Automatic annotation (TrEMBL):
Homodimer. The lineage of its organism: Bacteria, Bacillati, Bacillota, Negativicutes, Acetonemataceae. Belongs to the class-III pyridoxal-phosphate-dependent aminotransferase family. HemL subfamily. Keywords: Aminotransferase, Cytoplasm, Isomerase, Porphyrin biosynthesis, Pyridoxal phosphate, Transferase. This is Glutamate-1-semialdehyde 2,1-aminomutase. It comes from the Bacteria. It is an enzyme of class 5 (isomerase).
């Protein structure tokens, strides 16, 4: 197949492009994990993408399980999304004034995620969580925030504390430049250890404005919540009058159409969205209980704004994507089956080659850890063998399979991946494990 033909292809042009990019852009990239620093080597520079494939500037082709870090659930360059976008461009790309599109997307979000009674559009997941925290602090008139070690909610000061994703990949301590006075308002506890959260609330529950959680964490690799855990968190926060913020930037429209809150039947006070909601354009959103959201300016006193928020192109890509995924009742079951067959296939190949792999999947999201221990939190995720992962990763890349360049990132399935792609990926994994066994 085409992807197999790329086995021996080189990354010469990408290496040159990377060197030049470093002259003008810090580290050569506009988001750290793209640099491949965790796994070493040259990141392929991408020329174009279609369906489940990425094509780099050296002419290599890859089956893509990163999908722009989650958004491209329909696959790249989806014809209907492209048509809608091209038509939107003809009408002008930004007005800074209200449009029908914004209400349409807000209505769609409210229909699919009913806990989001009012929705405010922003431009990234980071903006969504930053704004949700400000709102929670204003609404409760409290200052402290609780987050979970290894959960990543974007790069603003309050939440760049014991964060996952690139911070975990590079083994960084909390970022320089975050004032102690801000970091000290963020309390961190381990995910899946309810007793730690209980202790924190017993000591300072009256000062806690909100608990922010990735209900299905994907930034310490993918980790599943223990049965009943999210319910316990919901009950505890309600008891103390702290808001529960579900950060579904990754899990939203990904683990299920209605996100993790639909799957686990939990009503958070506020929800943050990103990635899929923008269909590949820069969009985030936050929303929740009407009474809380009415505090946002201009309805209320809590300020939050954006020159490009609700941008017509971004709204168009989001609306078209959400309509397509919502209209087919088989969309998520099919994606979930494909994700399961991929992870089961890879795990079987690992076992045959004598490796222990912890494979997690839910809906169209998955994670692989080179570990013989169950992975339930950041500490157990860190026990996995990153040297083994790096060898595996590079072998897969050489075989035309594009995985996230870190064990501390989730993988994603799209509607554009076929059964043949999945079988090709599993076959490639067999070769990668054989290489690892050498
Ligand atoms: N929250 C979660 C759960 C995420 O996974 C991410 C990004 O990966 C963010 C927030 C930040 O979103 P963005 O990168 O769009 O700012």
């Amino acid at each position: 197949t085409a992807a197999e033909q790329t086995v021996s292809a080189k990354l010469n042009k990408s290496a040159n492009a990377f060197a030049e990019a470093k002259c003008y852009i810090p580290g050569g990239v506009n988001s750290p994990v793209r640099s491949f620093r965790g796994v070493g080597g040259t990141p392929p520079f991408i020329a174009r993408a279609a369906g489940n494939r990425l094509f780099d500037i050296d002419g290599n082709e890859y089956i893509d399980y990163v999908l722009s870090w989650g958004p491209m659930i329909l696959g790249h360059s989806h014809p209907e999304v492209n048509r809608a976008l091209l038509a939107a461009v003809e009408r002008g790309v930004s007005y800074g004034a209200p449009t029908l599109l914004e209400t349409e997307l807000a209505k769609l979000v409210n229909r699919l995620v009913p806990s989001m009674e009012l929705v405010r559009m922003v431009n990234s997941g980071t903006e969504a969580t930053m704004s949700a925290l400000r709102l929670a602090r204003a609404y409760t008139k409290r200052n402290k925030i609780v987050k979970f070690v290894g959960c990543y909610h974007g790069h603003h000061d309050s939440l760049l504390v014991k964060a996952g994703s690139g911070v975990a990949t590079f083994g960084l301590p909390d970022s320089p430049g975050v004032p102690d006075s801000i970091a000290s308002t963020t309390i961190t506890v381990a995910f899946n250890h309810f007793e730690q959260l209980q202790e924190v609330f017993a000591r300072q529950g009256e000062d806690i404005a909100a608990v922010i959680i990735e209900p299905v964490p994907g930034n310490m690799g993918m980790v599943l919540p223990q049965p009943g855990y999210l319910q316990q968190v919901r009950e505890l926060t309600a008891r103390y009058g702290a808001l529960l913020i579900f950060d579904e930037v990754m899990s939203g429209f990904r683990v299920a159409l209605g996100g993790a809150q639909a799957l686990f039947n939990i009503q958070p006070d506020l929800t943050c969205l990103g990635k899929v909601i923008g269909g590949g354009l820069p969009v985030g959103a936050y929303g929740g209980r009407r009474e809380i959201m009415e505090q946002i300016s201009p309805a209320g006193p809590v300020y939050q704004a954006g020159t490009l928020s609700g941008n017509p192109l971004a709204m168009t890509a989001g609306i078209t994507t959400l309509r397509i995924i919502a209209e087919d009742p088989d969309f998520y079951p099919t994606l979930a089956n494909k994700t399961e067959s991929l992870t089961t296939g890879i795990r079987d190949q690992a076992e045959k080659a004598g490796f222990n792999l912890q494979c997690h999947h839910l809906g169209a999201m998955f994670g692989l850890f080179f570990s013989d221990q169950p992975v339930i939190d950041y500490d157990s995720a860190k026990l996995s063998d990153s040297t083994a992962f790096n060898i595996f990763f590079h072998s897969m890349l050489e075989q035309g399979i594009y995985l996230a360049p870190s064990q501390f990132e989730a993988g994603f399935m799209s509607a554009a991946h076929s059964e043949a792609d999945i079988q090709q990926t599993i076959a490639a994994s067999a070769k990668a494990f054989a290489k690892l066994a050498d």
